[in-house]
């Protein structure tokens, strides 16, 4: 063996123990605890807030709820989820076989969508900006809601604190892979073909629907009605 190859071998042996150890630990952990590495694959969730902060970063509350999660082509049922809309991270809480409670950020590399309660979400790459959207409707034309929160310094008279806003909903119609924003009945109706507008206007008026404040069920019924129009 020549000197150069000998030095290279020593160099590799010097670097390899840590790598080999981590690989051995991972393999042993997988075997011992049987965790699904597709599901439990994400960065540990650490998000610390200033003392006295009002509100929280979540869509609904800090309480995790049972839901479902689709990664690659597999759907996992009865998983404990929460949605941090301020940081736009889906969180998964689980207890490993050692009894430790863990919260991780679900990797966006494999996620297709998730469901929390009656709310269905998909991770969609639209207009070169991948995001989580709440999805209503099942056809090519659907209603999408993008949820977010702001975080500001509030107060007066020398007493200040940080506070999260209530959830803010940006509303869209997804049509031919394009996002069409709306906020009123008028600009909602104008998204659609001119020959369809009278029927849509009549439907909204008959059912007393204001799209800005309409419930998920009402908007799902609206988009399903429109999808059936000729």
Note down, in words, how this protein is organized:
Among the domains are: 1-34; 183-230, no CATH class. The chain is 25% helix and 38% strand. The chain has four helices and 13 strands. Strand 12 (168-175) and strand 13 form a beta hairpin. The model is unreliable at 1-34 (pLDDT under 50). The strands form two sheets. An eleven-stranded antiparallel beta sheet has the order 1-5-4-3-2-6-7-8-9-12-13. A two-stranded antiparallel ribbon has the order 10-11. The protein has helices at 3-33, 185-189, 197-206, 216-227; strands spanning 42-44, 65-71, 74-84, 89-95, 101-106, 111-116, 119-126, 129-136, 142-148, 151-156, 159-164, 168-175, 178-182. The N and C termini lie far apart (79 Å). With 230 residues, it is of the alpha+beta class.
């Amino acid at each position: 063996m020549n000197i150069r190859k000998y030095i290279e071998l020593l160099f590799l042996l010097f670097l390899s123990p840590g790598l080999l150890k981590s690989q051995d630990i991972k393999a042993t952990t997988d075997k011992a605890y049987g965790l699904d590495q597709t599901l439990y694959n994400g960065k540990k969730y650490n998000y610390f807030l200033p003392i006295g902060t009002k509100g929280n970063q979540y869509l609904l509350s800090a309480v995790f709820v049972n839901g479902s999660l689709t990664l690659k082509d597999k759907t996992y049922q009865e998983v404990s989820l929460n949605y941090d809309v301020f940081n736009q991270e889906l969180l998964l809480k689980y207890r490993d076989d050692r009894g430790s409670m863990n919260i991780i950020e679900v990797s966006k590399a494999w996620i297709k969508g998730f469901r929390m309660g009656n709310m269905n979400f998909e991770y969609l790459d639209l207009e070169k900006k991948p995001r989580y959207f709440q999805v209503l409707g099942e056809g090519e034309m659907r209603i999408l809601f993008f949820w977010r929160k702001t975080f500001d310094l509030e107060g007066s008279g020398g007493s200040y604190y940080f506070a999260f806003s209530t959830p803010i909903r940006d509303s869209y119609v997804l049509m031919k892979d394009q996002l069409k924003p709306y906020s009123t009945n008028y600009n909602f109706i104008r998204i659609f073909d001119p020959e369809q507008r009278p029927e849509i206007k009549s439907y909204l008026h008959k059912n007393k629907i204001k799209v800005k404040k309409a419930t998920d069920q009402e908007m799902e019924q609206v988009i399903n009605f429109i999808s059936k129009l000729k």
